[in-house]
Design a protein that fits this description.
The protein is mainly α. It has helices at residues 2-27, 34-55, 62-76, 79-91, 95-128. 28% of the residues are buried. It is a multi-pass membrane protein.
Length: 135
């Protein structure tokens, strides 16, 4: 059952990632891979929030936590695409853009993840007064 939920979540995350890529290519015409960057930053924040608010505080059943964290967010974010896009930037001579992409992804990803953790903790403490509620 857990595998099915993770798989279903994976489908949702992959489709969301695909549509972020389409959406970003409509409004930007740059060599910077904004679609992957955007998905990875959103995913970093949400996974930080989910880990603090839902997984650590056991707000939902572990199967649902896996469906959200591993399924949806795991397939929404993409390290492999980030890696390929970075290599493509290097191969086409865009070294500065590749370096910018790597540094921004690393620093912003950590910042977004940290912000998600902080927001999840703050929300959890203010909403539940520190108590657990399992759905």
């Amino acid at each position: 059952m857990q595998g099915l939920l993770v798989g279903f979540g994976g489908v949702i995350g992959a489709l969301l990632r695909y549509y972020i890529g389409l959406w970003s290519s409509e409004w930007t015409h740059t060599i910077f891979p904004i679609g992957t960057f955007t998905a990875n930053m959103i995913g970093s924040f949400i996974l930080g929030w989910l880990t603090t608010r839902i997984i650590q505080h056991q707000v939902v059943h572990p199967y649902l936590a896996a469906a959200f964290g591993t399924g949806i967010i795991g397939s929404f974010t993409t390290f492999s695409t980030f890696s390929v896009e970075t290599v493509q930037l290097i191969q086409t001579g865009h070294w500065q853009m590749a370096l910018l992409y790597v540094l921004l992804s690393l620093l912003a990803g950590l910042l977004f993840s940290w912000s998600g953790f902080k927001m999840g903790k703050t929300f959890s403490e203010s909403k539940n007064g520190g108590s657990k509620q399992v759905l």
